[in-house]
Design a protein that fits this description.
The chain has about 110 residues and is mainly alpha-helical. About 90% of the residues lie in helices and about 0% in strands. The longest helix has about 50 residues. The radius of gyration is 22 Å and the shape is elongated. The chain starts with a helix and ends with a helix.
Length: about 110
């Protein structure tokens, strides 16, 4: 892994941590939702500071370049995160539909009584 990639990983990870902290302070992001981003950024810092870690995993998996492993890891982690966001969105859509139906039935009952 080149020195340039290591610097970019550190700077980008620290910038992401700062952005997440700023969003939490402005109440634009819940602390529970920020956990993934802090963990993701921390892992990227570990990869940049200790290049032996991506070297080990790239050798273990059979990837020629540790930088390719870092990119593969990032893409994989983001795919998993996207999947869980999709599941959460589906759950919230179902809850919203049920709530809308409940409110509509309640308003209909109030209209008949009044």
């Amino acid at each position: 892994m080149t020195g340039w990639l290591r610097v970019v990983l550190i700077v980008a990870s620290l910038a992401m941590m700062a952005l997440v902290l700023m969003k939490i302070r402005k109440a634009q992001m819940r602390i529970a939702d920020s956990t993934f981003w802090f963990l993701f950024a921390a892992i990227m810092v570990v990869f940049a500071v200790f290049p032996q870690v991506p070297f080990f995993f790239s050798f273990l998996i059979g990837i020629d370049s540790p930088s390719n492993f870092v990119f593969l890891f990032a893409i994989g982690a983001l795919f998993v995160h996207e999947f869980y966001l999709t599941v959460e969105l589906s759950r919230l859509r179902a809850k919203t539909a049920a709530l809308v139906q409940h409110v509509a039935l309640r308003e209909e009952d109030e209209g008949k009584d009044g």
